Amino acid sequence: MSQQRLISLDALRGFTIAAMVLVNFPGSWRYVYEPLEHAAWNGITPTDFIYPFFLFIVGVSIVLAFSKRLESDTSKAGLYKKIVIRSLKIFAVGVFLSLIPYFNFAELRVTGVLQRIAIVFMACAFIFLKTSFRTQAWIGAVILVAYWLAMTLIPTPGYNQPMLDPGVNLAAWFDSLFLPGKMWQGDWDPEGFLSTVPAIASGIAGLLAGQLLLSDRQPHEKANLLMVAGFFSVLAGYVWSLTFPLNKNIWTSSYVLVTAGAASLALGAAYYIIDLKKYTRWTWPGIVFGANAIAVYVLADLLAIVFYTIPFGGESLNMHFVLTLIAAGVAPKLASMLYAILFVCINFIPAYILYRKKIFIKL
C-alpha cells in the first residue's frame, strides 16, 4: 500500500483551524452574523460543522501516520506509549488555556475543545491499532445507537421521562456527578464527558475514510466513494434528526452523521480537486495553518489575551478596532467580522514563519 502526502488533507486541516479561529474571536460578541454563531440548542449552523470536521480529520490523520509506522514494524507497545503521552500533553494544554490569564483554580474547567480532541485521539488511535475496518464501523454504529437509546429512553434522574433540554438531560446529569471543576454553562457543559463518547464516533468516521484513501482502489473511485458515503451519511443524519435532533451541545448521533458526512464530502471533493486534478495554488494558506494546527489554536488563545484585555484608548484592542470602523460607517456585524479576519491573518504570520523554517510543533 503506497502512501503519498495528501495535500488535500493538509489544506482541509489548515482551513478548518482558520475557521475555528475566525468564529472564536469576533471583534465583539454583540455583533456576530448568525452563520458565525453556534446554534443555541437544537439545529445547526455553518459554525457547528467546524469542530466535528477537525475530529474527522484527526481520525484520517491517525490512519496515515500509524499505517506508515506499522509498515515499518514499529513496536505497538511503543506506539501506545506515544499515544498516551501525546493525549495527556494535549489535554494538559487545554486545561492550561482554561486557567489563563488569572489561574483561578476555583473556577477551573477541566473540559474543553483540546481536552475532547485529546480523548478522541487516544480512543481512535487505540481502536485503529487493535481492530479491523469492519470492527471499527461496528464500534461507531454501536456508539451512536447506544447513545441515542440512552438519551431518549432513560428518564433523566429527578424527572419521570427522558429529557433533551439544556441542563436537563442524561448527559448533563452524568456530568454533574462525575465531571470535576466548573461547567461551561453552570449546570451543563458542551464538552462534557458523556457527550464525548459520540464524539469518538466522529473520529472513527475519519478512520474509515483514511483507510479508504490508503486502499488499493483507483483514485477516482476513492473520491467517488468518499462523496457518496458522505451524501448518504448526511441524508441518514437528517432523517434521524426527526427523532433525535441535531445538537452540537450534547453531540447527538444525528449530528455526528450529518457533520461526518459533510466532512467526507469535503475531503472527497478536496482529494479530487487538489490531489487528482492538481489544482494546488490556492491551498498554501491551509497547508501553512495545517502544518502546526494545534499550535495555531493555542497561539490564538494566547494572543487573544493581548487583543481582548489590554486597554487601548479606553477600550480593548478588538473593541477599539470595531468601534473605529463603526464610527467610519461600517455596519457593526461587518466590522466585527473584519476584525476576526484580521486576527486570523495575524495568527498566520507566526504559522508561516514556523512553516518556512520547517518547524512543526507536535504536542
UniProtKB/TrEMBL annotation:
The keyword Transmembrane helix applies. It holds the Pfam family HGSNAT_cat. The chain crosses the membrane at residues 12-29, 49-67, 88-106, 112-129, 136-154, 193-213, 225-243, 255-274, 286-310, 330-355. InterPro entries: HGSNAT_cat. Residues 5-157 form the Heparan-alpha-glucosaminide N-acetyltransferase catalytic domain. Keywords: Membrane, Transmembrane, Transmembrane helix. It comes from the Bacteria. This is DUF1624 domain-containing protein.
